[in-house]
Design a protein that fits this description.
Number of helices: 7
Number of strands: 4
Low-confidence stretches: 75-96, 111-129
Largest sheet: 2 strands, antiparallel
Distance between the termini: 58 Å
Strand order of the largest sheet: 1-2
Number of domains: 3
Shape: elongated
Oligomer: single chain
Length: about 260
């Protein structure tokens, strides 16, 4: 106001600092995550630096429910009865540049269910059945929860997603995947949140419903045998065979030259 900070804002910043430092799990080596527009809850800074950033740069837009600093997600019932629950304010910091949070939103089918008039308005999510709402909240939390206290580069969700992606792209066996997890956990801090094995990883990711389908493709990637082309056995462009040659006397189905 007139080039000066409002007294109410200065008092609000101090209240946030006091609240954040009152919760031990927020603190790592005397530092907490800075929720300013530049740090975006990704950097750990000392108390004076966090205060300076908030006074000079301002809070991250939409960060009204301090979930990263210890406040619980706020869920407000919209419909009476145990069968459904409405989630309000749950995507309070939806403006955070977190692709894994967006992944959860899209996979749970609520990406188009929020509305807001400006960055400071409240976000309201359409009602979801209780089990879905519970999974939704857990996954949103996992998207923000650091892999261990003080970790700024990976969350519990991001680590699990990337590990499963590596297993798929590198065609790792389940045994190899589990041994890699065991080795990784052996040199991580005691408070790490990494999944324990392949079974736990699949169980953790199951609420997202992210499965996959395999399709036969041309060995030269000219075309996909899908839809109207499902029954074709030769590529329309290069003429390559869809299936590997086989012995006429052998049993079993045809094996594709290449799959996607």
């Amino acid at each position: 106001m007139d080039g000066r900070l409002r007294p109410e804002y200065i008092i609000g910043v101090r209240r946030f600092i006091n609240f954040a430092f009152s919760i031990n799990k927020n603190i790592s080596r005397g530092k907490i995550r800075c929720p300013c527009v530049r740090c975006k809850n990704q950097k750990f800074l000392k108390e004076d630096d966090v205060c300076k950033h908030l006074l000079t740069k301002g809070f991250l837009p939409c960060y009204e429910n301090w979930t990263v600093h210890g406040e619980p997600y706020v869920a407000e019932p919209i419909l009476a009865g145990p069968s459904s629950v409405g989630i309000s304010h749950v995507v309070n910091d939806f403006c955070l540049e977190n692709p894994y949070r967006n992944l959860v939103m899209d996979a749970m089918g609520v990406g188009d269910a929020y509305s807001h008039d400006n960055v400071s308005s409240l976000v309201v999510i359409k009602e979801l059945p209780n089990p879905e709402a519970t999974n939704f909240l857990k996954l949103l939390k996992a998207a923000e929860e650091p892999l261990w206290d003080g970790c700024t580069k990976q969350s519990k969700l991001s680590a699990c997603v990337q590990l499963l992606n590596m297993k798929s792209t590198l065609t790792l066996t389940q045994t190899a995947f589990n041994k890699f997890i065991d080795f990784t956990k052996s040199y991580m801090p005691n408070d790490e949140n990494l999944v324990s094995n392949f079974y736990d990883a699949k169980k953790f990711m199951r609420p997202l419903g992210l499965g996959y389908d395999k399709y036969n493709v041309c060995p030269n990637y000219c075309m996909l045998y899908y839809g109207a082309d499902t029954m074709k056995i030769n590529c329309d462009f290069c003429g390559s065979l869809r299936y590997k040659p086989r012995n006429p006397t052998s049993k079993g189905s045809n094996k594709a030259e290449k799959q996607l």
